[in-house]
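User: Hi! I have a protein structure encoded as tokens and I'd like to know what sequence might fold into it. I'm fairly new to this, so please keep things simple.
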């Protein structure tokens, strides 16, 4: 065997060893697939999301970090396992016995987080606590006080012009609670239906629904881009292509009720975009993930806002309750 043949053989072996393997993410208790879990590499960069069957491609011998709003975060070095089990989160809310009909406002506190990577580099991070008052009849939203922790990378190689930031950074904002939840929007859409835990639109699977009877919760995940494969926006000479947009919401659930905004426990959104300029050859890959958790709630007749000191204390308590991927935390510490 000549040197060239040996080189080719070694190359093939290395390629086979490092080739991606399809792996299923599953609930450690129910064994059901976990869809739209976010998977990061060793540098804290998003490499993708599990699909509706819970599948994602991973490479043997590489380090990964897995995050999902209703499961404990998991870090591992992938071997030959075809299934990776995730443990359900122990996150719970205190019970409130007063019904919404007797009070004017639903008052909740939300812990939120928003992260942006540009070309696999951490560019932006923000988290904090914000409170909301929602009218129990009209569902009109009133924002209360907020405490935030904000980070913007100083790296010039991922800096964008101000006008381009008007496009991409607009996706990152403080948390909001829509008048209707993702579940309500789904069941009201005449083109959509839910059957056997699968959400379809015009007979095309676009998401999944799972009810956790033991925890009295419902998890809903959906491809928010349907029926389009991509959303193209043009502004100031820039072309922005939104190619992925997944949304997931977790609700407190009672079989007799349709989960509403008053049942919402947490929400997660992931978007992948590319940004180009007609005069530039550079293509920016942008990954944005945002989430929020309802950490406290009550029904009240007055809009009595929490003090800044109280929210600061809440931030200390709850930011540790929902840990960020460790490599992202390390990057934040280094930049500071």
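Assistant: Happy to help. Inverse folding works backwards from shape to sequence: for each of the 336 positions I chose a residue that suits the local structure. Here it is:
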């Amino acid at each position: 065997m000549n040197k060239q043949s040996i080189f080719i053989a070694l190359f093939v072996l290395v390629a086979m060893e490092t080739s991606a393997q399809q792996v299923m993410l599953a609930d450690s208790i129910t064994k059901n697939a976990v869809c739209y879990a976010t998977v990061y590499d060793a540098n804290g960069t998003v490499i993708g999301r599990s699909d509706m069957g819970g599948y994602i491609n991973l490479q043997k011998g590489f380090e990964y970090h897995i995050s999902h709003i209703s499961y404990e975060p998991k870090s591992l070095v992938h071997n030959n396992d075809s299934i990776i089990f995730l443990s359900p989160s122990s996150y719970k809310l205190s019970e409130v016995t007063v019904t919404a009909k007797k009070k004017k406002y639903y008052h909740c506190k939300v812990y939120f987080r928003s992260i942006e990577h540009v070309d696999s580099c951490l560019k932006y991070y923000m988290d904090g606590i914000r409170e909301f008052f929602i009218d129990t009849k009209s569902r009109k939203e009133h924002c209360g006080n907020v405490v935030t922790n904000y980070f913007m990378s100083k790296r010039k190689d991922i800096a964008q012009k101000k006008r381009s930031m008007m496009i991409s950074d607009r996706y990152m904002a403080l948390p909001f609670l829509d008048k209707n939840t993702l579940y309500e929007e789904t069941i009201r859409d005449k083109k959509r239906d839910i059957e056997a835990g699968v959400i379809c639109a015009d007979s095309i699977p676009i998401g999944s629904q799972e009810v956790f009877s033991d925890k009295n919760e419902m998890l809903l995940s959906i491809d928010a881009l349907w029926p389009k494969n991509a959303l193209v926006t043009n502004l100031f000479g820039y072309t922005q292509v939104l190619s992925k947009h997944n949304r997931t919401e977790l609700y407190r659930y009672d079989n007799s009720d349709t989960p509403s905004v008053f049942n919402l426990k947490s929400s997660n959104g992931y978007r992948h975009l590319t940004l180009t300029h007609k005069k530039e050859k550079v293509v920016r890959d942008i990954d944005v993930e945002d989430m929020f958790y309802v950490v406290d709630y009550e029904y009240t007749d007055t809009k009595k806002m929490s003090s800044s000191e109280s929210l600061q204390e809440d931030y200390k308590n709850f930011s540790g309750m929902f840990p960020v991927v460790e490599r992202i935390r390390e990057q934040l510490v280094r930049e500071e």
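A useful reference point when you look it over: The two ends are 55 Å apart (CA to CA). Feel free to ask if any position seems puzzling.
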